[in-house]
Amino acid sequence: MSSNKDSINSLNSTHMRSPKERKNCLKRALQQTLILQEVINDSTINKLDEAINEVDHVTYETSIQEKVSNQQEVLIDSQMMTSSSKVLKTCTVSLTKKMRDYDHIDFSQKLIKHLQQTSKESQSPNWSLLERLVTKLFKRVANSSTLLGTLDPLEKKTITRKKPEQRIASQAAVKIPDKVVPNTNKNDEDSVERTVRKIKKLITCHCKETGKPLDFFQLILHPHDFGRTIRNMLYISFLVKDGVVELKKDNKTLTVEPCRKETNTQRNRSGDRLGIQSVISLNMEQWKMLTKAYKLEQPMIDFDEEK
User: Is the pLDDT of residue 1 over 50?
Assistant: First the structure.
């Protein structure tokens, strides 16, 4: 490519054609390619190559400023590209048709006629004459043999397995450690149970009076004490685990309502009851946002555990 450009540049430096001469050259190349579209023969590609080379010379001679000012040369150049692509397409179609001209009947008839002429003694064609020509077209494969079945099978080794020894389990004396945690105060346990029963009663009475489930956050929120809110949420989780109440989520809020006896008995029979203690995560920032949203002045769970 560099040698071609150098030769073109040297040619341009010696002889620069005028715009009129370049335009006439482009018109002659375009006219030649239009003629090549109609006549397709063996020299079509060579003539098309000559016309394209001539257009390339004209393109290298023309500067960018001249191309901008003289749009007619650019138009002829684009027409030349379109015409040459059509010539190439016509050549491709013609070549494809020539490749499809094979006729197996005509070939077989010519082959039989050739064999009849070669074998002069008999009128029937001597097919053995084609043996030397045909065998040269096939690759010869060397003879191969396998060792399958030639070797004697190996003797199978009998593996003697040892019987497992009877181990006498030595039962060590198990010493029960002393209780690390001292006995919890029974009064505290009783107070928690009383509080849980009160919360259960509160939920049941509220749902019976209103006929609607109770808002979970409205029930557990304490507007002035974050610790009481967390403790109330833990009490509700005990009731959920025991199957006394259940949590439901509707389109807006999380609600709590007492479980029906029919549902509990059905779950116990079918074994669907999981007994999972539901504990919801709640931090200080979320508690502040909830208290502002619900605008509670007094908590619903407003009784002391010790009473």
Answer: no
Distances (CA, A) of 301 to 217, 221, 253, 257, 261: 11, 8, 19, 15, 25
Distances (CA, A) of 112 to 59, 104, 126, 132, 138: 59, 12, 9, 17, 22
Model confidence pLDDT, tens digit, residues 158-212: 888 877 776 655 555 556 555 544 555 556 667 888 888 888 888 889 888 988 8
Contact between 63 and 22 under an 8 Å Cβ cutoff? The reply is: no
In the chain, what is the greatest distance between 2 CA atoms, to the nearest angstrom? 134
- Residues 237-262, buried b or exposed e (16+ Cβ, 10 A)? bbbbeeebbbbeeeeeeebbbbeeee
Q: What's the CA gap between 5 and 240, in Å, rounded? A: 89
